[in-house]
Amino acid sequence: MVRMNDVTMVYESSGTVALDGVDLTINEGEFVFLVGPSGSGKTTIMKLITGEVHATSGSIIVNDFDMVKIKRRKLPKVRRTLGVIFQDYRLIENMTVYDNVAFAMRVVGASSRDIGKRVRYVLELVGLEGREKRYPKELSGGEQQRVAIARALVNSPRMIVADEPTGNLDPVRSLELMLLFEKINQMGTTILVVTHEKELVNALSKRVVTIDSGRVADDQDGGLYFNYEVE
Amino acid sequence: MRLSRGGYLIREGFRSIGTHGFMSFASVTIIMACLIIMGSVSLLSVNIDRLIGDLEDQNEVVAFIDDKYADEEQARSFQSAIEAVPNVSSVQFVSRTEAFENFMENYTDWMREGLDETTLRHRYVIHLTDIALMAQTKEDLKAVEGVADVRVHLEYADACITIRNVVSAISLVLIVMLVFVSFFIMSNTIKLATFGRREEIAIMKMVGATNGFIRLPFVVEGLILGSMGGSLAFLAEWVFYEMVTGRLVGSIAGEFFTFVPFKEVAPVVFILYMGTGILVGAFGGVNAIRNYLKV
Ligand SMILES: Nc1ncnc2c1ncn2[C@@H]1O[C@H](COP(=O)(O)OP(=O)(O)O)[C@@H](O)[C@H]1O
Ligand SMILES: [Mg+2]
Prior knowledge:
Bound molecules: adenosine-5'-diphosphate, magnesium ion
Strand order of the largest sheet of chain B: 2-3-1-4
Order of helices and strands of chain A: EEEHEEHEHHHEHEHEE
Order of helices and strands of chain B: HHEHHEHHEHEHHHHH
Shape of chain B: elongated
Helix content of chain B: over 70%
Oligomer: heterodimer
Strand order of the largest sheet of chain A: 6-7-8-3-9-10
Number of helices of chain B: 12
Strand content of chain B: 5-15%
Number of strands of chain A: 10
Distance between the termini of chain A: 31 Å
Structural class of chain A: alpha/beta
Helix content of chain A: 25-40%
C-alpha cells in the first residue's frame, strides 16, 4: 500500500526537480505499471517507497509507515514489507542460487529450518527447482531475474516494487516474467512495475500510471502505454 | 542457529582477514608497533617514577630545636606535635650528641677545630608524604612550639616534580597519538573489507537487515585484529623489556637503579594492551562501515 500526497523531490546535488507534486495511491492487492519517458521521475518514486531517498516535501505512507517522519533505524521494518527488484538482478556472484535467496532470510534473523522450507517453496514458485546449486553466471538472464524475484518474495513482502525488471531480457522472457508477476499478484501481493514494454503493458490490461516531468500525467485502469501523449 | 551464529561470525571474520591478508598483516603489525612504543614509554615512565620516588625518600627535612631546650628530655617532648603536622610521614629524633658524632665522622680535621657538641642543636629528621607540598609543610613545622628553624631542599623537590610531570606529559601525548594512528589504520583495513562486500551490504539493507546486524561482522573482524595485535604486542614487550633491563642491570646503570620487574607490571600491561587493541578494533570496525549505513 502506497499513499503519496503532493510529493516533491529535489536532488540537492544538482538542484534537479525530479518530482513536482505527485499524488499517487496504490491499494493493497493492486497491480500497477508505472510508465513514462526516461528521466521523468519513475526511479525516484521507487526510491522514495524503499526509503533510499527522502522527499523534499509532501507526505508518503508505505505499508502503514510514515516515510517522512520515520527514524533511520526503523527503515529495516519498512523494507521487510517490500520486495525490491532491479534491472541488473543484483545477485551475489560467489553464492549459489539457493544461498542468494536464503541470504535474504538469514540477514533478517530467520531460523535455518524455516529457511530451508521457504527457499525451496519460492524457488519452485518462480520455476527454478533443480537450479539450487548453480551460480548466477551459469544462468540465463531470465533465470537470474527469477532468482532475484525469489529473493524478493522469500520474506513474504506485502508489496513487490520492480524497476525495469525486463530491461535486459528478450520479449519472450519479458512476457514470462510479467506473467510470473501476475501470478504473484493473484496470490495477494501488491505489484508496482516500472517498464518500457509497450506491448506487454497493452496486452496485460492493468492499471497504468504515466509520469511525465515529475508529475502524474495519466492514471487509468486497464490503461495503455502512453495513453497520454508525450510531446 | 543462535548457537552457530557466534561461530559463523568468527569464521567470517577470519575469512575476511584472510582475503585482505596483506592489509590485515599490516594493521596487526602497526597496532603491535604502536602498543609496544606506548608500552615502552609507559614502562620507562614507571621506572623513572620509581627512581624519583626513591630519590624523594632521601630528601629529608630537618627541624632544629631551639637552644632553650638544651635538655634532651625536653627536646624529645616535641615529637608528637611534629608528627601531628599534615604531610609528615615519619619523624626521627636525633640528639645533638648523635649529630655531633655524625658530623665528626664526615668532615676533615681542620673543619672540626674548636667545635664541641654544644655547637649543634637537637633536631628531628622528617620524611614527607608529598614533596610537592614541601614549602607549606616547612611553614607548618616552623609554627610548632620549640622548633627554631627548618631546613629543606626546595629546588631539589621542584626538580623531581618537574621531571615527573614532563615524563607523564610526554607519555600521554605519545599514547594519544599512537591510539589515533592505530585506529586510523584499523579503520582503513576494515574499509577494504566493506568495499569488497559492498554488494552484499546493499542487498542486506534492501531486504531489511538492521544496521547492527550489518555492522557485526566488521566489528568482529576488528576485534580479532585488535586482540591479535594486543596479545602479540604483550609478548614482544615482555621479551624486549627483559632484554633491555637485563642488559642495563649488568652495566653501570645497574649500580644506581633498580628496575621494576616485568612480572610486577605484566597484568596491567596485558589488560591495557588487550583493552586498547579491542577498543581500537571495535571502533575501527564501526567507523569503517559508517558510510554504508547512512541511507
Ligand atoms: N542521485 C541523483 N542526483 C541528482 N539528480 C538525480 C539523481 N537521480 C536522478 N536524478 C535526476 O532526477 C530526474 C528523475 O530521474 P529518475 O527518477 O531516475 O527518472 P526515470 O527513472 O524516470 O528515468 C532526472 O532528471 C535525473 O537526472
Ligand atoms: Mg529509472
